[in-house]
Specification:
This protein is an alpha+beta fold and 265 residues long. The strands form 3 sheets. A 4-stranded mixed sheet has the order 6-7-8-9. It has a 3-stranded antiparallel sheet with strand order 3-4-5, with helices on one face. Helix 1 crosses helix 2 and helix 4 crosses helix 6. The chain is elongated, with a radius of gyration of 27 Å.
Length: 265
């Protein structure tokens, strides 16, 4: 019997898979590693393991190549009492790490090894996914804000970021031009009640209506404080064209400079 006709042991491969099928890229940041796991799991809300003490711990998938069988195995890992338990999930067989992580999470979910973390009692969110999304919203360095900052910087304007214009008043602006006394706020359409894009919430509607109305009242009060102190408040909706919005800000700052130059003897 020649070698080609000899029976092979089930579960063995002829050659090992490429490293890209299981090994993570060197030098990745912790943020990139977390994002990779979130993508593979279809979101962070489904990545939780219930520990022995009843606490829910965020889990991750680890891929390990077995040299003898040349197969890739997936393990579920989490932190518990200073330890990092590993629970075997199953065997994966794709040629990329991303696909193998996704397959492993699918197996873990199908076997009930992970679940959504229950909402805290009295939570304002309608689901764990909603709570995770809302908590993940940035308070600063949003994409519209970064774009406007870039355009203004390109125009030669300098500013403070996420600073309080008025001493003793706990209200921060996204951009502060101290000398020109201009405070810029880049407001999210949902959180600040944009008349064009804010739609009433279908669940917990009373909570969200109160929340948004409170934000709008606070915005109006902040504008009043600034005006009383001789400042100009500029509010930009996140949906606005960044070039036009940056133009409004630049015009306000340069208007101050022009008035100052005019008064110089």
């Amino acid at each position: 019997m020649n070698a080609a006709a000899e029976p092979r042991q089930v579960g063995w491969k002829d050659k090992p898979p490429p490293e890209r099928a299981w090994r993570g890229r060197q030098g990745r940041t912790r943020k990139a590693i977390v994002a990779e796991q979130d993508r593979a799991a279809g979101g962070r809300e489904g990545r939780y393991v219930k520990r022995e003490d009843g606490v829910y711990a965020l889990a991750s998938i680890t891929l390990k190549l077995l040299p003898r069988t040349r197969r890739i195995r997936a393990y579920l890992r989490w932190s518990e009492n200073g330890r990092s338990p590993a629970l075997y999930v199953g065997q994966v067989e794709h040629l990329t790490r991303a696909a193998n992580l996704e397959q492993a999470w699918q197996i873990a979910k199908a076997r009930g090894m992970v679940e959504e973390r229950p909402l805290p009692e009295g939570s304002w969110a309608s689901s764990p996914a909603t709570r995770s999304s809302m908590r993940g919203n940035r308070g600063r360095d949003t994409a519209p804000e970064l774009r406007i900052r870039s355009l203004l910087h390109r125009e030669g304007l300098r500013y403070r970021v996420s600073a309080r214009p008025l001493p003793g008043v706990r209200r921060s602006a996204d951009l502060v031009f101290t000398r020109a006394r201009v405070a810029v706020f880049v407001d999210g359409c949902f959180w600040h009640g944009c008349p064009e894009h804010c739609r009433p919430a279908r669940t917990n509607s009373d909570f969200w209506r109160t929340k948004i109305e409170g934000n709008r009242a606070r915005d109006a009060q902040t504008d009043h404080f600034l005006a009383s102190a001789g400042w100009r408040a500029i509010r930009i909706w996140e949906h606005e064209d960044p070039v036009q919005a940056a133009g409004r800000v630049a015009a306000a700052v340069r208007d101050f400079a022009a008035r100052n130059d005019h008064n110089v003897p």
